[in-house]
Design a protein that fits this description.
Blueprint (H helix, E strand, L loop, with lengths): L4 E8 L9 H4 L5 E12 L3 E11 L4 E11 L3 E6 L4
Antiparallel strand pairs: 1-2, 1-5, 2-3, 3-4
């Protein structure tokens, strides 16, 4: 079984350590991000992705690494990519 490869466009939180006026601070917005990874799971709360997938044939154990959880409310869109 191969895991589906997905692209996710989402808005991320960030922190600024620069001094700024309250007027300028009120103009701040989330950072737009695009992430591509293997889809591990889709839940009501989030998408779970991984950058690496290791299908171990000898032990019949599948492993992933570099996992990422993106909250559903932060996602603008996501789609499965066509990869042969």
């Amino acid at each position: 079984m191969t895991l589906p490869l997905v692209e996710v466009k989402w808005l991320d939180a960030f922190i600024s350590t620069s001094d700024m006026s309250i007027k300028d601070a009120k103009k701040l917005k989330p950072i737009e991000r695009f992430t591509v990874g293997y889809l591990i799971a889709e839940t009501e709360e989030c998408l779970i992705l991984s950058t690496d997938y290791f299908p171990k044939k000898k032990k019949r154990v599948k492993e992933v690494s570099a996992t990422m959880v993106i909250p559903t409310g932060w996602i603008q869109y996501w789609e499965i990519q066509d990869v042969d």
